[in-house]
Amino acid sequence: MKARPPFTTRAIVGAFLVASAAAAPAALAADCARTIGSVLSLTGSYGVHGVPISRAAQLGVEQVEAARAALGVGCALTYDVRDSQTQPSVAVDAAAKLIDIDGVQALVGPISSGITGPLLTSVTVAKGVVVIATASTSTTFTNMAREGKTKGLFFRTLPADSLQAVATSKMAYDAGFRKVAIIYLNNDWGKNNQAEFSRAFVALGGAVGNIVPFNPDQPSYRSEINKVLEGEPDALYLLANPNDGSKQLRDWIRFGGASGLVLPQGMNEKSFVETVGDAALADAWFITPVSPKTESFQTVNADFQACCDLTIDGGPGRTSGYDAGALLALATVAADISGVEGSGANLARIVRAITGPEGEPFPSGVEGYKQAIAMYSEGKDLAYVGVTGPIVFDQNGDVSASFAGLRYRGGEFVQEKAISLEEVNQIKAMMAGN
Question: Torsion-angle region of residue 389: left (phi > 0), alpha (psi -120 to 50) or beta?
């Protein structure tokens, strides 16, 4: 193991686990098994996202299992997903059953921030279970972590709205929009995202028109759309899911709204395009975190197409879902190798120990995981290079990324703008100065 300054998280975790590994057997009983749980929207308003995200997370677990089995270490891994139906109460009940009945200590987390919040506050933190969210971007969770309310048990593999909404504001401003109205889903994600976007857009020199909340699954949004049309904005920031967003966009066009559209990550979904039609999106801009085309990306994308006839970057949350599943699976194998109880707290510490910025990098995919497990068994520091890129969690369990502005052209989402992390941080500094 590389020398580290004393009292760092990596040094403490690494020393503890390597010492344990020295006394642990290379392989456990052949019939032992561990489960990586998952609570995702397989149906409901986010079902269009949840099914491929779950399959990506499952692939991550399956590939770690293949690597583990080939090396003959640890316990067999399985993946067990439960449908939240995009309902907080259903998600909380499903998570409680996975934990209390099946003994799950690691969960691939929900898509919606409106579901992740109740999950954390009602179930997982109290029960000591680690969660890696796939697509919950609300800044609320950063604040909870900062206040010690997540107890170090919450991570996410895509950037929070404190970065993503700011990047969206720059994309909108650079697209030439100067007065943007906002309609937003009336939940934790919508409230925080629109607030961050508004502050950033004003700091850049733009103006924000009417800001109107909406409740999901309404048959019509005529009233809300009429309100955002007041003041003649030149663009609409549509903070919705594809199902509600398609209804709102039709009303926006029907009642004379401008062609300019600003759309969050969850809307870069082909089902949304197919519903509203290409013509409605002629002046639409979509934001997405950038997944660098690393060895990990190329390998997993090919594997995902082979297993599931899907591309790993073909919709929001797939890349981050894969990394969430793979990291929890790797942490579980590492706990077995080290002879450490696979509690949520131990798994959370190992997640930090096998991610950057320090350590020897290893790629995603079966061969990469074989390499990682072998290096871990030798007591080496590791740094996971996932499908989303090299993963480095900050003290709040957040990651950083660059972003891209996408347009829909010729049947595909095409990158037409790059937004660097440095640019996002410059805007945040401008916001702090206002």
Answer: left
Tokens 């401003």 belong to 173
pLDDT for residue 5: 29
Output the CA torsion sign for 65, 67, 70, 71: negative
Under 8 Å between Cβ of 39 and 119: yes
Instruction: Please write the tens of the pLDDT for every residue from 190-211.
Output: 999 999 999 999 999 999 999 9
Cα within 13 Å of Cα(424), Cβ side:
23
The SS3 assignment for 44 reads: coil
Ranges under pLDDT 70 in the chain: 1-30, 434
The C-alpha atoms of residue 224 and residue 244 are separated, in whole angstroms, by 12
Q: How far apart are alpha carbons 241 and 113 in whole angstroms?
A: 12
Q: Which of 394, 397, 423 is nearest to 163 (CA)?
A: 423
Instruction: Note the residue count of the chain.
Output: 434
Residue 376 · residue 361 · CB < 8 Å: no
Residue 263 pairs in a beta bridge with: 286
